[in-house]
Amino acid sequence: MIAIIDYGMGNLASVYNAFIKTGFGDIRITSDPEELRRADKLVLPGVGAFEDAMKNLNRDRLIGPILESVADGKPFLGICLGYQLMFERSCEGGSFDGLGIMKGDVVRFDVSLPVPHMGWNETAIRDGDGVFDGLAGNVYFYFDHAYYPVPSDESVIAGTTEYETVFVSAVRKGNIYGAQFHPEKSHNNGLKIISNFGKLR
Amino acid sequence: MLAKRIIPCLDIDKGRVVKGVNFVNIRDAGDPVDNAKVYNDEGADEIVFLDITASHEKRDTVVDLARRVAKEIFIPFTIGGGIRTLEDIRNVLKAGADKISINSAAVKNPEFVREAARMFGSSTIVVAIDAKRVAPGKWDVFINGGRIDTGTDAVEWARRVYDYGAGEILLTSMDKDGTKDGYDLDLTRAIADSVTIPVIASGGAGTIGHFRTAFTEGHASAALAASLFHFRELSITDVKRFLNDNGVHVRLDYTANK
Q1: Which CATH homologous superfamily contains domain B5-246?
Q2: Interchain proximity A20–B167, CB inside 8 Å
Q3: What b-and-e string marks burial along A71-109, b requiring 16 or more CB atoms within 10 Å of the CB?
Q4: Is the Cβ of A14 closer than 8 Å to some Cβ of chain B?
Q5: Which residues of A fall within a CB distance of 8 Å from B254?
Q6: Where do the domains of chain B lie?
Q7: CATH code, domain carrying A40
């Protein structure tokens, strides 16, 4: 069973629909810690502020099950805010601790272009395997964000995107994946990631 | 680099596509989801659904529409028409829409834009502006389908909604709408150059070249068309290929797998 973690941060229906569409029916939207422990795979989506998100995860006692699942090597996918939450700290609205699944900090765009960075942009995929299987080179995804993580371990970088500055838009460490873009809103390329994630073991 | 976007618009009345046409790839000409699927496959970057249902029947139909579309369409989509309260916005976003578009509700109460942007984030709030030329180089904001002149200058209004936190402006030229003789490039440029949020050019698209000039001369971030795509006079892929060949940066990689 794939669990989409519901912690009161934004709409999860599109992520759910994308798994259904690509043929993965054994899926739950849940905020139950026990259900997260039982799940084979976790998806952490989310839209909103970093601080609120960590507060909610803590309030709902979801941090423990998430870290256990990751430590057990179960596939994990963080999307957008969920991707940022995987890191150690964010500067959004102060300085707040994240889940620390990946090393590094989340920073705000410091560019002359409009922020948030919103729309279709290219991600240079480094290795077309795992959830990126079948996606090589420069691939379009849909973005909507003002912050992004800076991994301190460069070996986790799976994809980069240019928006005046070059930032890390996807990471991978074993079965753990994070994407700053929205696969569930990124047409065929995004559905490919969803489908690949569904097939991971 | 961000891609310039091509956005088809579907007019919806009581949950059905207005003037639905039976093309071979559409099972049900009046079904918004079937129509949207075709646009999705053709490479639309987003889809706008404009609900024109009489307002007293509307509230439930837009939420239901958003829910049905979200099950089948995996690109961003916007719902506009009759959204008046924060609760309306919440319900439509929760049903799966990515953005909502407000027009007359913003004109009547500009604070609504500020509240909506604060509560749901700027990137979910599109303000639609219907503008009509009232003097050379001057356009006013009109409401009620272009019948009522609000007396507000369109460029000033665009700056104001930008200050209030609108994430995007859907700019329709009431002079050009339905004419097929091209977007109002002067209007589009005047507004696009006065705000840093994206401007969607709308009204007047008739040829493939009109899309190019919306970007190169109108400085738009996106170009919208309704009947041109709906009646299959042009396909979205053809438009995007033409743009790509003419130096406009667009998303075309979805064609690689076909």
Answers
A1: Aldolase class I (3.20.20.70)
A2: no
A3: eeebbbbbbbbbbbbbbbbbebeeebebbebbebbbbeb
A4: yes
A5: 140, 187-189
A6: 5-246
A7: 3.40.50.880
For chain B, 258 residues long, give each residue's pLDDT as a single digit of tens.
Answer: 899 999 999 999 988 998 877 776 777 889 999 999 999 999 999 999 999 886 666 667 889 999 999 999 999 999 998 799 999 999 999 999 999 999 999 999 999 999 999 889 898 999 999 999 999 999 999 998 788 999 999 999 999 999 999 999 999 999 999 999 999 999 999 999 999 999 999 999 999 999 999 999 999 999 999 999 999 999 999 999 999 999 999 999 887 654
Residue with tokens 């529409």: B65
Residue A49: exposure state from Cβ atoms within 10 A (0-12, 13-18, ≥19): middle
Q: Which residues of A touch B197 (CB under 8 A)?
A: 114
Q: Which of B67, B195, B251 to mutate to test the interface with A (most CBs of A within 10 A)?
A: B251
| Catalytic residue IDs of A | 80, 182, 184
Residue A93: domain span: 2-199
- Only one residue has tokens 């995996």, namely B74
